[in-house]
Amino acid sequence: MSSIETIHVDGVWLPAASGATREVLDPADATTLQLVSEGGADDADAAVAAARRAFAGGAGAWPRTAVAERSALLRKVADLLQRDREEIALIESRDTGKTLEEGRVDVDDVTNAFRYFADVVMNESGGRVVDAGSADVHSVVVHEPVGVCALITPWNYPLLQASWKIAPALAAGNTFVIKPSEVTPLSTVHLIKLLVEAGLPAGVANIVTGAGVPVGQRLAEHPDVDLFSFTGGLASGTKAGAAAVSGAKKIALELGGKNPNVVFADACATEEGFDTAVDQALNAAFIHSGQVCSAGARLIIEESVRDRFVAELARRAERIKLGRGTEDGVECGPLVSQQQLEKVAAYVASALAEGAQLRCGGSRPKPSDVRPATGYFYAPTVLDGCHREMKVVREETFGPILTVETFTTEDEAVALANDTEYGLAGAVFSADTARARRVAARLRHGTVWINDYHPYLPQAEWGGFGKSGIGRELGPTGLDEYRESKHIYENLRPAPVRWFAG
């Protein structure tokens, strides 16, 4: 299989400086999907240099283009995404293992992100006028691009997470270097091609495919990078963030979550309510085989309905159809890699050793139950009788594992939901509107859903409390992450100050 050039620097597609390549695997059957360029520190340096030249260029450089021009380009990219919707969805499905329909939803969400930030920058005024208390002074606060941005994205939603960074970075007038996960780089490569097709000047958008060490590490510590934005795991994110902070860079980190789904008994008082709560619990935990930073992996359910709820949850979980994401009828694809498969199996083993009760799953499916049998599949797993001291409850498992904890009072439910070092997202299900809103207000999580799970809006900020990260993506704040504020104070009637007698 021939390799494709996946390093894009200063408008040119290149092999790695070292000539190295990497196999990108199809997680559904563990075969090679594509050979890509395996970049290193030298490639990262070249990409940053190109981004710096593009940022520091003359009057026609991207940071100094009219807002209307930047907005128009983002809209053109959105149109191109829709043109290539099926092709990109297929790339995303085969690369990550998610279903083809999930891939289509991702492309639509990415399209919406580009259109949202195109609208935001167009609707802004020329700055915020500040009342200086004198008619002789004109004072205004304006926003300018940060500069060269280093963007690191994860393997579970490569295209979506790239858009959350690229769209606001470009809208604000920045240049960037992006390093997608080495496991799932293909859709991001396609997005860069669309940016080029849309007319983005050379050097504004650069991509280096390769491993976190050395590429991500070099971008984090590079002295000519002005902003470092990372989405991924807590351990690698804090290490990279520390390197970036040591260089006095602006940083934004989204580091995952361990997200509670709180279900009150009154949500299950009717058959329709019960069905909805069970269905949403499955949706919360098992979409994309649980490989979601906001997955509702902790079911916290009122004791009085626990037995019936968990029994039905396990019954339905056992019926989830596993298989290649591009096949009709498949509801969950494989895990992304052998490493992730082993990680998930280890979490289940530790939970059982600590006293959890296995209600369903807990192993790879039988070869006769899934096709292809060689893929990285793991059965949706429900673990009952869990408690906060268990490793599987404390740590982000990033797999199809749902733990069950119980409560008897509202205060206990809130305490359990907040008893985590993370704080990305959570949900509360209740037929009592006042209670649901009261509990939502008390949850220390960046996004809280009431009687729903997983939807997000590009116009609403996304990010977490605690160790879930620093900063926000999406919404107006998501644009501000990529800008610096500048105060311009103009004296309209200059005169001597006479501070010194002279």
UniProtKB/TrEMBL annotation:
Which intervals hold domain Aldehyde dehydrogenase?
A: 13-488
Keyword vocabulary terms for this entry: NAD, Oxidoreductase
Q: Active site located where?
A: E254
Q: Which pathway is recorded for this entry?
A: Amine and polyamine biosynthesis; betaine biosynthesis via choline pathway; betaine from betaine aldehyde: step 1/1
Extract the InterPro entries matched here.
Ald_DH/histidinol_DH, Ald_DH_C, Ald_DH_CS_CYS, Ald_DH_CS_GLU, Ald_DH_N, Aldehyde_DH_dom
In terms of Pfam families, this protein maps to: Aldedh (PF00171)
Q: Which family does it belong to?
A: Belongs to the aldehyde dehydrogenase family.
Q: What is this protein called?
A: Aldehyde dehydrogenase family protein
